[in-house]
């Protein structure tokens, strides 16, 4: 036996070629493309190649530039500005490479060195599918680490990669509505009806604005700058109108994709069906570069917004009892078509001397015009809450004329999202079965009550499942986490650190999140039940394959091997990423 394994070992050495077989080519190595080769790539993509530095580099010596630094400082929290900078993403922790002490924080001293971190070295600011094909071919030929960068919102570090070439989709913003969409390859006359095709970098707010003019709606999330065709829809995409329209990916009809071998393919129900299955929930940055997506649109509808606020004195037991009653009422509100968000603040400072506990909820009822009908739905909950001494309840319903006006007024109007800091979250999907079981709501609340909260910290409830999300599970076979079909609420809490936190402190927070807090929120329904939403999950989620994709993982892994056998598209915690190191630079075996 010993001899045999020695033979294998030697044979292994014999076939192993230099590091480049197992690792991506890195800038200090001979394999790195020469200047002329980069220039040639630049020519083939019509001068759209740029060498990049982290955006805060102009605030540090020796690159310091007072007026440029002032502009960066002023724009630091503006997601629209960030979306347009190849040297930035939305969260500064993913611009840095903490494990290698490579950071370029605006908060650090002027004479602190600005390191490249996870920001790519070159950016291909692609405008067309052909540009994408050239950039993919170049990365493949030269064995480069490749990053696909859309809005840069990703919470798991999937849109940056150290020492990489970046495909920057920001120029691809075409939006085209059609009345009768016929997927390529569909039988003659097989129309999917009204649909919209959007380029890779269309932001949700841009999509809503365009849709508003057509008297149709598109199923999407609550953000201005999140990319409708990017990581959002490719990992599922939840919406405050989930009960009505399902997940964003449930509405996808066709993707045009540049695959790892540089071919432009169409994936839909009639061709490349495995890719179509994977792109609806399998996660961004993994199967190819999506050039554009076509999604079904839905008719306009009036909306009633129901707002419920709960407050108690600080840390009152009745606060948690009220939160539990609220969760117990969610299944019925959801069955009646309600979906939306709620935010709980166990320690909420109201002024310099007083703190209270509070929760505020906004559920949307599409298709309703009669506020009394919605009031009736809330009557049982309000009556239960009235019986809890010490709980103050505020409740109101507001009719809005359309889905368009709800999205544009409430969440995705003028301006952008507030980003720029450090982001890290933990989250969990919870089922309708849990919330309809006798002690389910109180077990859920007990777990979330045991998390640490500082003043102003909140748990964020996304009551975005149920209704069409559940019903679509019977009609649509896609890669999306099967747990979504049973989900009513997706609960999230931030577990970030300060920009100047030491690596040790970051590790301590990450350790506690993965070893203590995630097990706690997972234990409510058991480790193998449910899971979490890959787009809003912890960047070190334990067992991410099962957590993000459940039983769909083995098939996703196979599809990944078929379309990208060499692992050109590797995203942190993406399908197949377990074969690579955290930076996606070297194969583990
Ligand atoms: C303020 C805010 C609000 C949010 N609201 C919601 C919400 O309401 N509902 C919801 O479901 N999620 C929401 N999210 C989470 C969001 O879905 C994720 O952050 C998602 O990763 C964003 O995708 P993106 O393409 O915009 O970002 P990026 O960070 O640019 O990309 C994310 C991932 O997708 C890949 N990718 C991007 N474009 C392409 C492409 N063309 N082809 C292939 N891969 C690509 C990237 O490589 C990366 O792996 C929100 C996030 C934030 C910060
Ligand atoms: C690519 O070409 C453009 C236009 O000629 C030029 O401005 C740019 O600096 C070039 N990029 C690189 C990396 O050389
Ligand atoms: C990290 O970098 C900072 C600033 O460049 C330096 O002061 C510090 O000693 C470095 N730490 C480690 C562990 O290398
Ligand atoms: C989608 O992308 C393909 C490939 O670039 C292009 O041919 C097609 O015109 C695009 N469709 C729309 C509606 O933008
Ligand atoms: C958008 O796509 C459509 C369909 O492919 C095309 O006719 C149109 O010219 C494109 N518009 C822009 C601004 O690229
Ligand atoms: C690209 O890969 C796909 C999927 O493996 C394959 O069908 C196609 O023939 C390949 N094209 C080229 C040009 O290699
Ligand atoms: C908009 O769509 C709604 C729902 O389909 C319909 O009732 C209404 O008449 C339409 N309005 C216009 C101006 O077409
Ligand atoms: C703070 O708020 C509490 C509760 O609303 C109020 O009773 C108190 O007077 C306020 N204190 C100050 C200093 O404003
Ligand atoms: C509105 O709903 C209330 C309560 O369900 C009902 O009594 C009333 O008739 C409804 N009004 C209209 C105009 O439908
Ligand atoms: C609930 O609280 C929010 C935030 O304080 C407030 O804007 C809203 O008016 C309150 N709702 C009701 C019904 O009082
Ligand atoms: C959509 O909503 C926005 C914001 O309320 C409004 O300005 C616009 O007129 C609406 N569009 C339509 C067609 O109602
Ligand atoms: C770990 O997390 C729990 C729950 O949030 C918290 O109570 C505890 O203080 C944390 N421990 C450390 C060392 O951060
Ligand atoms: C981080 O910055 C805050 C102020 O923003 C300061 O109070 C704290 O001491 C700093 N921590 C470290 C480790 O430098």
From TrEMBL:
InterPro entries named in the record: BBE, FAD-bd_PCMH, FAD-bd_PCMH-like_sf, FAD-bd_PCMH_sub2, FAD-linked_Oxidoreductases_BP, Oxid_FAD_bind_N
Record-level Gene Ontology MF annotations: FAD binding; oxidoreductase activity
Keywords, alphabetical: Oxidoreductase, Signal
Occurrences of domain FAD-binding PCMH-type (ranges): 114-300
Annotated signal peptide: 1-16
Family membership noted in the UniProt record: Belongs to the oxygen-dependent FAD-linked oxidoreductase family.
Protein name from the UniProt record: FAD-binding PCMH-type domain-containing protein
Source organism (scientific name): Penicillium salamii
